[in-house]
Design brief:
Blueprint (H helix, E strand, L loop, with lengths): L1 E10 L4 E10 L4 E5 L6 H9 L6 E6 L2 E2 L5 H11 E4 L11 H6 L12 H13 L15 H13 L5 E5 L7 H17 L3 E5 L11 E4 L4 E3 L2
Parallel strand pairs: 3-8, 3-9, 6-7, 7-8
Antiparallel strand pairs: 1-2, 1-4, 2-10, 4-5
């Protein structure tokens, strides 16, 4: 599902240099990424998703060499293939909860918005405990509720790959296990792959494999 070869990436004037000689994930694998803040974990997710492009090396995802695609092609690939749960949610304040969940379907022709998709969005929101908030503005939500909206949006298209950046970081302990269970169930039902950045080490035994990002870090954040 993911193949990274001889990757190098740096932020200009930031003193940060990421080097990954090789990294791979099999289809349907669930991998957790750990490491200190600033080590490059979010950068890895952004490189896999094609939000960032490496200075050197190659990034293959779901049979596509993402690192050589043009901007528009990378965006369409990301929307149709990857469900991304962002650490800072990336919700739109001018849309209500339901329209935030449906937003990927409105920004690309790679996805088709149908009545069945709308029904699935409502069902997913119910599973995540926000079914009664679909008409609310996101400014009326708690941090944990915003996180659930972001998870619904990522899972709705049934992506081949789910990238989760601290998906449980804004949830209380009672809900962390439930949300992770839902992520795992969705990944399994779609025979998808999960790559998750997390600081919740108590959740690590539920993953197939854990990657310590310190092994890839070069330079300072």
């Amino acid at each position: 599902m993911i193949e990274i070869d001889a990757l190098e990436f740096s932020y200009p004037d930031a003193g940060f240099h990421l080097r990954i000689p090789g990294f791979s994930m099999a289809a349907r694998e669930k991998v957790a990424v750990i490491g200190p803040s600033g080590s490059g974990k979010t950068t890895l997710l952004n490189l896999v998703a094609g939000i960032l492009v490496p200075r050197q090396g190659r990034v293959h995802c779901a049979g596509t060499e993402v690192s050589v695609l043009a901007d528009a092609a990378r965006r369409d690939f990301r929307i149709s293939t990857i469900g991304f749960v962002f650490q800072d949610f990336e919700l739109l304040d001018y849309l209500n909860v339901l329209d935030n969940i449906l937003h990927p379907y409105r920004i690309t022709r790679a996805l088709q918005l149908t009545a069945e998709v709308r029904d699935r969005a409502g069902s997913l929101a119910e599973q995540l405990g926000i079914g009664d908030k679909l008409k609310r503005g996101v400014e009326q939500l708690s941090q944990g509720e915003k996180q659930r909206v972001a998870i619904c949006r990522a899972l709705l298209p049934g992506p081949q790959l789910v990238l989760a950046d601290e998906a449980t970081g804004n949830l209380d302990p009672r809900n962390k296990g439930h949300i992770l269970e839902l992520l795992f169930e969705t990944v399994a039902s779609h025979e998808a792959t999960l790559l998750a950045v997390t600081h919740d080490h108590e959740l690590l035994p539920q993953f197939d494999r854990v990657v310590d990002f310190n092994d890839f870090r070069v330079g300072a954040a």
